[in-house]
Amino acid sequence: xxxxxxxxxxxxxxxxxxxxxxxxxxxxxxxxxxxxxxxxxxxxxxxxxxxxxxxxxxxxxxxxxxxxxxxxxxxxxxxxxxxxxxxxxxxxxxxxxxxxxxxxxxxxxxxxxxxxxxxxxxxxxxxxxxxxxxxxxxxxxxxxxxxxxxxxxxxxxxxxxxx
Amino acid sequence: xxxxxxxxxxxxxxxxxxxxxxxxxxxxxxxxxxxxxxxxxxxxxxxxxxxxxxxxxxxxxxxxxxxxxxxxxxxxxxxxxxxxxxxxxxxxxxxxxxxxxxxxxxxxxxxxxxxxxxxxxxxxxxxxxxxxxxxxxxxxxxxxxxxxxxxxxxxxxxxxxxxxxxxxxxxxxxxxxxxxxxxxxxxxxxxxxxxxxxxxxxxxxxxxxxxxxxxxxxxxxxxxxxxxxxxxxxxxxxxxxxxxxxxxxx
Amino acid sequence: xxxxxxxxxxxxxxxxxxxxxxxxxxxxxxxxxxxxxxxxxxxxxxxxxxxxxxxxxxxxxxxxxxxxxxxxxxxxxxxxxxxxxxxxx
Lengths: 163, 250, 89
Prior knowledge:
The complex is a heterotrimer of chains A (163), B (250) and C (89). Chain A has 163 residues and is an all-alpha fold. Chain A is 85% helix and 0% strand. Chain A has helices at 3-24, 28-53, 59-79, 81-86, 91-116, 120-152, 157-160. In chain A, helix 1 (3-24) runs antiparallel to helix 2 and helix 2 (28-53) runs antiparallel to helix 3 (59-79). Chain B is mainly α and 250 residues long. Chain B has one domain (52-249). Chain B has a two-stranded antiparallel ribbon. The longest helix of chain B is centred in the C-terminal third of the chain and has 29 residues, at 210-238. The radius of gyration of chain B is 24 Å and the shape is globular. Chain B starts with a helix and ends in a 9-residue tail after the last strand. Chain C is mainly α and 89 residues long. Chain C has one domain. At the A-C interface, helix 1, helix 2 and helix 3 of A face helix 1, helix 2 and helix 3 of C.
């Protein structure tokens, strides 16, 4: 086991596991941002493990998760909009989750970039980092938008998400 | 059959399975050892056929018949779901209502859709070189199209999704796999033999029939999932049973 | 021993997520736990250096399964709502 694998395992245990706990419990308003955080952190774990195992091909798993993770979050926002609007998340905790995303991505991707050196692999890493940041930004925007739209339609929230 | 008899039958089955399972486990080599009789032979065969990803070589060359079975299971289950979720005589369709979408979410969907589609196609095309292949890439491609429903609304998705065409593509993917397998018969080899030239190792065109079979699976899986989700979406968004009044939608 | 710690962590995550998915009864909450189970399985597969299976699991588990579960929930709810209304009339 080398440093990269150890770092990946540590992030899995201390980052992904708590985020997953937050996704599995509590109101929908907490689960949705936590789900986004879980997928972001897990992508980073995959990147670290790929580096640790010395297999650049494993990076593809992180690439796929970096687009499917936000898709999953948007899907929850879309289909559970009424529940999100009924019990909106506190703006501060939503902001904190997004900030955690923003901090974690460069904290992992930048050292990996230095370890990789210039080339195609570096471009792939940067694309994954960009997709992760863009995805978490959109996820928090979508949650906020769902809450505001729900308040605008107070009373008929049940029917609004049938489109 | 009485409850008691059923329990006896269950107990006999559980006991038999448990005995066989324990016997099988006792003979297993230890976890993480260095002795891999099957692995070594599979890697050797994969390299002999210029396929960099041994898993792809096992799935689409050495044991291609098993994959045909798996593909047919998916094809059959999509077909079964289609029959179950069809629009019956006492059901009717209501046009979906446009949803209000936040501009940043719409922008993200319009950027993410081509990116996800490209990643899906990349995973299909590189199946013989790196992890991935027709199934994984096909699912990603199908998911990318549904970003239109997830981030915009159902009408946006319906505009780019003529279900009939996808049904044809689903069947064509399944048929393509069979035809590539049957083409080997023309050369005098067995069904699903890798009969094409193996190409240069570690390039996109290497592996003989492996990339072709991967592409057939990719088409089948992507189209199959689009058709499957189309039925789910129709039921969840458009179809109401005849007794339901239009007020349900207000 | 230290070599096997990552795999052990992965196994524990899968066991916890799997048990949770069985114990949670509400389908909406279950869809969250199910997607977590998919992610945990993908992590375990990658730790065992099986990226092909990890990719399959990710592709199916992260967006497709929750979408199908939630669409079914929506259909059932709609039906239940209209039947309730019928009883009131």
